[in-house]
Amino acid sequence: MYPIIVCEDDAAQLEQLHTLIKNYILFHSDLFKIELTANNPNDVLTYLEKEEPQSGIYFLDIDLQNKIDGIQLAEEIRKVDVQAKIIFVTNHDELAPLTLKRKVAAIDFIEKDQPLENFRQEIYDTLTYAQQLIDETRTVQKRGFSFEVGTQVYNLDKSEVIFVEASDIPHRLNIFSTNGKFEFYGKLTDLEDKYDFLFKISRSCLINPENIHHINFANREIGFSNGETRKFSIGKSRKLKSLIKETL
User: What mean pLDDT is predicted for residues 1-21?
Assistant: First the structure.
């Protein structure tokens, strides 16, 4: 199921959006579920903290009459749900360049002030497009490793992944690959669950055993194909020995 979250501070417009999305789900897809409709962005923040959604679809008003505007809310969403599909429903499409600058990677801007039929069709087209993006991303993830940096999506073959570790910046990770180092939003626990080829060597590091160059069990250190080294926890020694035998 793909969760849908709507945040609009105008009650009538919130109800209209809810009705249009509900009708789309009724006639087009059983994979969507409206998880939250809110007129206060703080309700969305609470939902994010509690549920930690993945691959959600978010309809946001940019000009929320709150201390948190729609772009700020999108930034917070992106920190938790790195695969979020963000759609701004607004009368301020002139703010589109600002969303690019702030790297929230919205997939669409839907103008409120237009005939209802046109508005409905844009909502429906965007929902169809969002589902296609999510489906394509999940298909790619089965073959390799996918992550987002700003507005760009990187899809790596699993052989290109060397290791992933926690960054010094909260909620961010560093991936070391055969193509270089990248930083992106994410959680190690989510990656460990999603990618079965990754092996956890410590609380802060997941590795791809295929790219191990050597292991020094005396000082519990792994050397990788890119020349980097990382320490592993003492309890991982036996499993690492098994992995080396399997890899060879």
Answer: 93
Which of 17-21, 61-65, 67-71, 142-146 is the least confident region?
142-146
Token pair belonging to 120: 């409905």
CA distance 155 to 126: 23
Burial of 200 (0-12, 13-18, 19+ CB in 10 A): middle
* pTM for the full predicted model: 0.58
Q: Decide if pLDDT at 241 tops 60.
A: yes
- Bridge-based pairing of strands 57-60 and 161-166 is unpaired
Rounded CA-CA distance 216/47 in Å is 45
For residue 221, pLDDT beyond 80 = yes
Annotate 206-235 with b (16+ C-beta within 10 A) or e (fewer): bbbbebbeebeeeebebebeeeeebebeee
DSSP notation for 94-142: GGHHHHHHTT--EEEEEESSS-HHHHHHHHHHHHHHHHHHHHHHHHHHH
Q: How far is CA 5 from CA 114, 141, 228, in A?
A: 22, 24, 41
- Which residue is associated with the tokens 């055969």? 178
Phi, psi of 91 (to 5 degrees): -100, 10
Measured at the CA of 79, the angle between CA 78 and CA 84, to 5 degrees, comes to 30
Say how far apart CA 241 and CA 248 lie, in whole Å. 11
pLDDT in tens, 128-149: 998 888 877 666 555 678 888 8
